[in-house]
Amino acid sequence: MNLNTQFSGLFTALLFVIFQSCSPTSSSDPQVTVTEFVEIRTAHPEAIIIDVRTPAEYNSGTIEGANNINVLDDSFVPKVSTLDKSKTVMVFCKSGGRSARAKAQLQELGFTDVVDLEGGIKGWKAADKKVVQP
């Protein structure tokens, strides 16, 4: 094998690794903006929206159509395990930390289309989006 062939193979492998790390199906997908969240919700009206904050936080105002399943509660995994894995699942919390955890857990459970709102409900409010009382 000559040097050009070795270099070409190495270069191809490197490109593959870079491409895979940027792939939209990666489990480390970034959070989506409020605008993207709204667009995805519009495109998938059957999506399951989960507010992963505490019940007290949820009761202070949430996104319309959201169900409250607290990611910090021991019942989170049993509750989300009953959901339809073929549907888009949209998660959010107060600012983005807990929803990232929820997204990872959902993906571990086999959910393949999980969307995490960047900035959480704080970002939603900052974008002047409607918040409802449950």
UniProtKB/TrEMBL annotation:
One Pfam assignment: Rhodanese
PROSITE patterns referenced in this protein's UniProt entry, alphabetically: RHODANESE_3 (PS50206)
Record-linked InterPro entries: Rhodanese-like_dom, Rhodanese-like_dom_sf, Thiosulfate_ST/Rhodanese-like
Domain of life: Bacteria
Stored Gene3D superfamilies: Rhodanese-like domain
Segment forming the signal sequence: none
Domain Rhodanese: 43-133
SMART domains: RHOD
SUPFAM superfamilies, A to Z: Rhodanese/Cell cycle control phosphatase
PANTHER family tied to this protein: RHODANESE-LIKE DOMAIN-CONTAINING PROTEIN 15, CHLOROPLASTIC
Protein name: Rhodanese-like domain-containing protein
Organism: Flammeovirga pectinis
Taxonomic lineage from the root: Bacteria, Pseudomonadati, Bacteroidota, Cytophagia, Cytophagales
